[in-house]
Amino acid sequence: MHTFEISNEFLLDGEPFTILSGSIHYTRVHPTDWHHSLYNLKAMGFNTVETYVPWNMHEPESGVFDFAGIKDLARFLDEAAELGLWAIVRPSPFICAEWEWGGLPAWLLPERSMRVRANDPAFLAHVASYYDRLMPILVERQITHGGNIIMMQIENEYGSYCEDKDYLRAIRDLMVERGVDVPLCTSDGPWCGCLRAGTLIDDDVLATGNFGSRSAENLAALKAFHEEHGKNWPLMCMEFWDGWFNRWGENVIRRDAQDLADCVRECLQVGNGINLYMFHGGTNFAFMNACSARHTHDIHQVTSYDYDAPLNEEGNPTEKWYLLRDVVRELFPSAWTGEPLIKEAVAVESIECKERVSLFNVLDALSEPVTSQYPQPMEDLGQSYGYTLYTTQIERDIAPDAEERIRVIDGRDRAKVYVEGTCVATQYQEHIGEDIKCVLPAEQNRLDILMENMGRVGYGHKLLADTQHKGIRTGVCVDLHFITGWEQRCLPLTDISGIDYSAGFEEGQPAFHRFEFNLDEPADTFIDTTGFGKGCAFVNGVNVGRFWEVGPIMTLYVPHGFTRAGVNELVLFETEGVYESTISLRSEPLIRHLEKEGVE
């Protein structure tokens, strides 16, 4: 059995060991590609894989657990072990990671008296229940039990959020009580304020730093913090940012490959370990993209998590991969390196739409109505992600040609407002609540408001803000008064198989557009959404993510594991009434340069 220790160096089987790690999040990569990504990590000369564990994926409903398919953490770790890779696991409860609400499950939100990420007994009880199911998977895979996990992390970047040491100790204790006995660590920004708030250094928990440049300077700051507390510990960057994530309406962020290689070399010459964040970024499938918190207008992140990483979104090597392999060969000449695995994607041109149907005509196939006097927030309806449709009747009490005033009070994130099936307004974030003026066409008028949860914040002070409660949170005013008598439809779109495409299509309404394409064998591809407005796409019933015409990325990556030989079904749910009669699949992503950045 192997051993791993933290002394003045990292020691593997009693010998000095440099951790060469790369981040791969198993829930962002299809299981059929795990070997591809892990092998490419090994072939670059690295010896360790790091992954977060997103709580919201494994406990989608309170008390309901799922560790199958893309969520099969055990299988992912075992595949890494088969390749001879060690593992660092960061098992929540909060992960940031540009992941929806930082991995916290949205079903926590209705408990308004509870404070998450705090020494709150109610929150810790939920974490304990989750850890009861998660930790047995990890404990038996620790190096102390003959497995490949050498280290685990307590919480994540807590020094950028709070300084509640009792909470951090409580999370540590929940892990240890369930059998975690490998070394523990924290990771934070490498400056004193962050480290003092977020570490448990006085409890002998290794403090690591997160940065992406100025390695000597940042590691010196980390070393000084260690010494301030009487520690002579190894220096590790737990997140060496080799690229960055992207947001709707902003140009794609790139980092020079040679600059990265030079900075990684510096880090490894000074420190004892590095974890590239990300090695393979992958994809925010379904509705798992997060949101960057800002003072007023939060900025939602795109489906692709390419991250400009050493492996691109598809999992193939970039220039960075080859330059980093050169660094490994230079600094660690005895490390095994190899040639990378490379996949090919396919293109299919001009696929004709077979049928389309308006959302309002297939509601019964997608959800059951819930009635209430006032509109309810998404989470209070038992829904976490996707869309919620609010419907009521409003009476015309002014002259037939006079404008009525409608206001959506306190809603998130984006509202599409329809009167008698016609869109009268689209409002996003801070514009929600402004007057919507329209002529009511009938004595009694159907009012529909389609609210979209575009992703909760994954980092920062807004984690507990009311804006993380999605849908309509207060009500809707017509003239000066709140309207009562609402019907709500939860539309998480987890199952669209029951849609009847013969139910009728109306221009200008949200709709499902169905296509079919043929493949000789399962293959990677990219859906070109050019010409479509906003929505999400399904391949053979699986939600592969959101698209939006504002860019910058105009394609959605589809891994070969979601496709099949023969006929494949592609469905686009589009909310703006903007669509084309054909769609194409590309063999590479399409990225549009934006002359003017920002989403209005």
UniProtKB/TrEMBL annotation:
**Domain of life (superkingdom):** Bacteria
Where are the membrane-spanning stretches? Answer: none
Q: Cross-referenced Pfam families, in alphabetical order?
A: BetaGal_ABD_1, BetaGal_gal-bd, Glyco_hydro_35
Give an example GO molecular function: beta-galactosidase activity
User: Any idea where the Beta-galactosidase 1-like first all-beta domain is?
Assistant: 375-489
Residue ranges occupied by any Beta-galactosidase galactose-binding domain in the UniProt entry: 510-568
In terms of SUPFAM superfamilies, this protein maps to: (Trans)glycosidases, Galactose-binding domain-like
One biological process term from GO is: carbohydrate metabolic process
Q: Which InterPro entries match?
A: B-gal_1-like, BetaGal1-like_ABD1, BetaGal_gal-bd, Galactose-bd-like_sf, GH, Gly_Hdrlase_35_cat, Glycoside_Hdrlase_35
Please report the stretch or stretches of sequence annotated as the Glycoside hydrolase 35 catalytic domain.
9-330
The residues responsible for catalysis, as annotated, are: E157, E239
> Which key words are in the record?
Glycosidase, Hydrolase
Record bears the keyword Hydrolase: yes
- Similarity comment: family membership: Belongs to the glycosyl hydrolase 35 family.
Per its record, how is this protein called by name? Beta-galactosidase
Question: In which organism is this protein found?
Answer: Enorma massiliensis
